[in-house]
Amino acid sequence: MPAKLRDELGERFTVTKGLDGCLAVYPEKEWEGLEERIRSLPMSKSRDLQRFFFSAAFDAELDAQGRILLPANLRAYAGLSKETVVIGASNHAEIWDAVKWAAYNDSITDDRIMEAMEDLGF
Q1: Separation between Cα atoms, residue 120 and residue 114, nearest integer Å
Q2: What are residue 96's phi and psi, to 5 degrees?
Q3: Any residues with CB less than 8 A from the CB of 26 and at least 6 apart, and which?
Q4: Which residue segments constitute the domains of the chain, with CATH numbers given?
Q5: What is the pLDDT of residues 67-103, one digit of tens each?
Q6: What confidence tens digit (pLDDT) does each residue in 4-26 have?
């Protein structure tokens, strides 16, 4: 885990399945907030979210070298190989297989970014 992200994540954090085939890493307070928001939804809307996020959630700590030992089910979900990429993504971090990240990053076009920025009023 990069040093900058270690400071932001804190000592304890939660790793779970993320979108687009990556793993999501939430600081303890962010994870608790996500749990509360999902649980506050009607069951018809929260059931799939609970199953997706909570069933794979893993409470993690960094070892002395700043590494995380990920369970096999999460490594398999994200298709992690020897080379990984860790990115900051607003209120959480994401762990990607390096090849998957490169392909995803290459798929992001200027037009897609421009559309998203227009939705924000830019």
Answers
A1: 10
A2: -120, 150
A3: 13, 14, 15, 16, 34, 91, 92
A4: 3-119 (3.40.1550.20)
A5: 888 999 999 999 999 899 999 888 899 999 999 999 9
A6: 777 777 778 999 999 999 999 99
Q: Amino acid letter at 87?
A: I
Is the dihedral angle over the CA atoms 51, 53, 59, 64 positive or is it negative?
Answer: positive
Which two structure tokens, joined as six digits, stand for 15?
A: 């790793």
Question: Contact 54/40 with Cβ under 8 angstroms?
Answer: no
3 state SS of 55 = coil
**Among the listed residues 72, 89, 66, the one whose alpha carbon sits nearest the alpha carbon of residue 1:** 66
CA dist., res. 107 & res. 86, Å (int):
18
What the block records as the tokens of 2 is: 């990069």
